[in-house]
Amino acid sequence: MTPDVRDRADRPFRADPRTVTGGAIPEAAWDRALRLIGQADEIALACHVTPDGDALGSMLAVGFVLRSMGKRVVASFGDHHFVVPRLLRFLPGQDMLVPPQDYPAAPELMITFDVSTFERLGLLRENTARAREVIVIDHHPSNEGFGTLSLIDSTAAATAVLAEQLMYRLGGRLDRDIAVCLYTGLVTDTGSFRHSSTTPAVHQMAARLVATGLRTDEIARELWDRSPFGYLQVLAAALERAALEDGLVWTYVTRVDRAAHGLPYAELEGIIDIVRRTDEAEVAVVLKEDDQGDWQVSTRSKGKADVGAACAALGGGGHHNAAGYTSHETVEATMDAFRRELGKVGWPRAG
Ligand code: 5GP
Ligand code: MN
């Protein structure tokens, strides 16, 4: 369910950041996390494949905190083609990153960020399976809890909210680098404070982060307001093909489209935000062909349809209003399967 801001607006805000989420994580779980972290010399961090701002930002923020405690920190994500998306290269702390090949084979302690399913660990699945302890920090309602300790709160607007709480509990101090990482996670997952997950507590957290002196204008430009020129051509091709049928708007972008303009896959992230503005559509879908020739399916809902459930049924996951999965089928077959799953979760509604 989408959290309802009105349910929480009248609750008094308390300055202690430990109290700002719905308290879905038991105190005993936090205590155990602190103990595991306290005992470890080296800590291996991981976020989901093709990381977004929340995944990478939360991971690097906690990396800074652990480093300041004297821990050895390695961080990674399990992509075959290990590169930080251009959009996120401004994030500090990237010297913590190692390619999956150099990741500890059997970490003593691992912490995962924004990883909702074991699959989303990609090449780091084996390392995770062999790790002694795995703390899973996440806010996806669909998280299957694949670790030895879950810090999962689906009422949190971003994994960055939980990362901030972990920081305070560890006795860490917020500085500018940490704030840039956490703010990137928060602003990404709330859609620039537009989604219904944007509670008073979210703005209070943003205030703490901005108070460190970070440049919100520069972060916004890096994340959303720049692209290589080729993006305009690829976007034009995608929009040209957009189809509207029964409240569903969809389009696709092929590898060939991108190759013609030398555009990397990661540059396609913003297309869904343009497609989903269609007034006549409740659900928006963009199929993006990756470098391996698979379709990465991005889906969005305005609230009536649970695209998270539909994507979960197709092997992916996400949230009620924003979700995705990977398809190895043709465009037509992929859309047929998606429409079928949407139908099963009761959309479009009869009558
Ligand atoms: P996006 O469309 O921006 O890639 O993803 C939207 C949401 O769906 C994000 O919360 C992301 O975590 C989730 N998501 C996207 N692709 C997948 C996938 O292949 N598997 C799972 N479990 N979640 C996904
Ligand atoms: Mn997230």
TrEMBL record:
<dbReference type="Pfam" id="PF01368">
    <property type="entry name" value="DHH"/>
</dbReference>
<dbReference type="Pfam" id="PF02272">
    <property type="entry name" value="DHHA1"/>
</dbReference>
<keyword id="KW-0378">Hydrolase</keyword>
<dbReference type="GO" id="GO:0003676">
    <property type="term" value="F:nucleic acid binding"/>
</dbReference>
<dbReference type="InterPro" id="IPR003156">
    <property type="entry name" value="DHHA1_dom"/>
</dbReference>
<dbReference type="InterPro" id="IPR038763">
    <property type="entry name" value="DHH_sf"/>
</dbReference>
<feature type="domain" description="DDH">
    <location>
        <begin position="43"/>
        <end position="185"/>
    </location>
</feature>
<protein>
    <submittedName>
        <fullName>Phosphoesterase RecJ-like protein</fullName>
        <ecNumber>3.1.13.3</ecNumber>
        <ecNumber>3.1.3.7</ecNumber>
    </submittedName>
</protein>
<dbReference type="GO" id="GO:0008441">
    <property type="term" value="F:3'(2'),5'-bisphosphate nucleotidase activity"/>
</dbReference>
<feature type="domain" description="DHHA1">
    <location>
        <begin position="261"/>
        <end position="339"/>
    </location>
</feature>
<dbReference type="InterPro" id="IPR001667">
    <property type="entry name" value="DDH_dom"/>
</dbReference>
<dbReference type="InterPro" id="IPR051319">
    <property type="entry name" value="Oligoribo/pAp-PDE_c-di-AMP_PDE"/>
</dbReference>
